[in-house]
Amino acid sequence: MVFELTDQTFEKEINSSTPIIVDFWAEWCGPCKMLAPVFEDVSKEYPGKLKFAKISTEDFPEIAAANQITGIPCLVIFKNGEEADRIVGFSPKEGLKRKIDQILAQL
Hints:
Layout: E1 2-4, H1 10-14, E2 20-25, H2 30-43, E3 51-56, H3 61-66, E4 74-79, E5 82-88, H4 93-106
Parallel strand pairs: 1-3, 2-3
Antiparallel strand pairs: 2-4, 4-5
């Protein structure tokens, strides 16, 4: 399950001991729209291991800027408030899972 972050919830959620992957996206972004169903699908495969969230760079540009998001879609994995890694651009399901598994193995 993917949940929406806001400026009210962002800091609290990324400061969790459970890793969280955040999809920085925008309504006008074609690759973001392609990634959304893949991201949702992959989210079901990591219960208890990885939380999945998204935040609009249009609605919360200050959060995107603070996290140096220069291209979207950009998936950033946080653990304990620190960025662990990022995945930029569209990935099909198997490619995304492979990248997530590699990142989780290093945490």
